[in-house]
Amino acid sequence: MSKRLPSNEDFARGKEVSIKLNGNLKVAYLGESVATVLLAEGITAMRTTIQGQARGVFCGMGVCFDCLVVVNGLPNTRACMTWVKEGMDIRTQDGLTPSK
Questions:
Q1: Is the Cβ–Cβ distance between 91 and 99 less than 8 Å?
Q2: Neighbours of 64 (CB within 10 A)
Q3: Tens of pLDDT along 37-66?
Q4: 72-99, pLDDT tens digit by residue?
Q5: Upper half-sphere CA count for residue 12 (Cβ side, 13 Å)
Q6: Per-position DSSP letters for 29-68, written without gaps between them
Q7: Domain residue extents for the chain
Q8: Selecting from 3.80.10.10, 3.40.50.2000, 3.10.20.440, 3.40.1190.20, what CATH number does the domain 16-95 have?
Q9: What is the per-residue pLDDT for 10?
Q10: Which residues touch 39 (CB under 8 Å, ≥6 apart)?
């Protein structure tokens, strides 16, 4: 269930695009970061460390590297610094590799 604010005449979004999130088709909007999409979908743990500790958005500006995800097969992508695009395949990350 999406946690996005409802759109209205005072609030505009970018163009709607389709993405895959952990293998499931989802709707995102141009202008959103990957982190925004994950949070809107209720995913706060974007990766786990190699010790199994959950990590998510911490700084939100690309400094801390806690929000690493796999985008189109490329691991260690900063979710807060990556803009959504049509057809993107986004997966949470387990340690230094993609989650299964």
A1: yes
A2: 14
A3: 999 999 999 999 989 999 999 998 989 999
A4: 999 999 999 999 999 999 999 998 776 5
A5: 2
A6: ETT-BHHHHHHHTT----EE-TT--EE--SSSSSSS--SE
A7: 16-95
A8: 3.10.20.440
A9: 79
A10: 3, 57
Amino acid occupying residue 21 = L
Which amino acid is it at 16? E
- As a whole number of angstroms, the distance between CA 5 and CA 85 comes to 20
Alpha carbon distance 2, 24 (integer Å): 13
Longest dimension (CA), the chain: 46
Q: Which amino acid is residue 67, in one-letter code?
A: C
Q: What would the two tokens of residue 63 be? A: 């400094």
